[in-house]
Amino acid sequence: MWCLVSQPNSVILEVEVDPKAKGQECLEKVCQCLGISKESDYFGLKFHCAKGEELWLNLRNPIERQVTGITPYRFALRVKFWVPPHLLLQDTTRHQFYLHARLELLEGRLKVTNWSEAAKLVAFMAQAEYGDFDQLTCPHSIYAQTAQIGVEEEMKPPDYFQRVAVHHKELKYMKPSAAEYWLLKEVSYLESFGEEMFQIRNCSGSSEARLGVGPHGLTLYQSDPCEKQSIPYTAVQSAASHRRTFHLMYLSLDGDETSLDVKLETSQAASGLYRAITEKHAFYSCETVRSAVTAQFIRDLKSSKRQLARLLEAISCRICMDRGIDTAFFPCAHVMACSECAARCERCPLCRGHIEQSQRIYLPLELQQNGLKMS
């Protein structure tokens, strides 16, 4: 049977699978078409059920048992498990992450703190898709699309588009792949990064709220945007869904056992919420990503640990993010790269100035022993 799979940029792929095939087979064929060989686990397939809800395809079960209607079945390729871009090994994987992040920003599901931050993100989009800023061929179309970005600040500054243009000019000579990387890097710092949102209401049906399931745990958003409650995975005692009802037992900050009983629109949505919690908990707790996720979401820990994470990132190479910084560029004197990455640079990645000389530097031993072994 045939399946039509749309990417976040609306480009559709056609794949053929066995009529009895499981969802995993379809996903693997899609990733094979895109050249994603080792990182398919980050992705999933979404489809619309009979009631119009968008659900994740269960990759372990046969497709025909989950999707109604006639073939070809229609799915959407989306990122299911978000990780910081420096953990992605393939450019093709990073590009799909970029396309999905771009879609989430433009449709307002990924919230940006202020308009200055939004202007910087749009500049990265423009550089990735149109190249260097040109006064005669300024990409006003993508600038205009930013009106849809969800920004927590209500008042858009009158010089907003000028701010975007200024940021775009500063990115001159940056490659499209690098612009995509830095957009993902900026997005990874957003509070809602990697969060899957569910519309819920209490069992009496009197009030509505949203429940976000992300890499760090659950976040309950009340009708007041400023009112929210975080529930880390370590506090969750049990979770279960029955028809449209979802039940959660967790430990409060005081150590008391607390329950959360809510209703969703359909029984499939309730099951989807349960699966989101179990799958994200399992994924982000596994050994291969635990350290990166801990560093990425260290804001939930004590301030001293948060400062340590910022320190470790500050002395990491800003290009590969794996090795420590040990090289200075001259004449600009910027220090931001390891020797291996510096050898490939003709211009400073920060100021775009021409590099006449690179010089090895040595950080204090205390910093080297505090989590980074300098090469």
Helix content: 25-40%
Radius of gyration: 23 Å
Biggest pleated-sheet summary: 7 strands, antiparallel
Overall shape: it is globular
Distance between the termini: 52 Å
Structural class: alpha+beta
**Oligomerization:** single chain
**How many helical elements?**
11
What fraction of the residues are assigned to beta strands by DSSP? 15-25%
Short synopsis of the structure:
The chain has helices spanning about 25-35, 90-105, 115-130, 140-145, 160-170, 175-185, 265-285, 290-295, 305-315, 340, 365-370, and strands spanning about 1-5, 10-15, 45-50, 55, 75-80, 195-200, 210-215, 215-220, 230, 235-240, 245-250, 255-265, 325-330, 335, 355-360.
Structural write-up:
Helix 2 packs across helix 6 (176-187) and helix 3 (115-130) runs antiparallel to helix 6 (176-187). The chain contains 11 helices and 15 strands. Helices cover 32% and strands 22% of the residues. The longest helix has 19 residues, at 267-285. With 375 residues, the chain is α+β, with helices and mostly antiparallel strands. It has a 7-stranded antiparallel β-sheet with strand order 9-8-7-6-12-11-10, covered by helices on one side. A 5-stranded mixed β-sheet has the order 2-1-5-3-4. The radius of gyration is 23 Å and the shape is globular. It starts with a strand and ends in a 7-residue tail after the last helix.
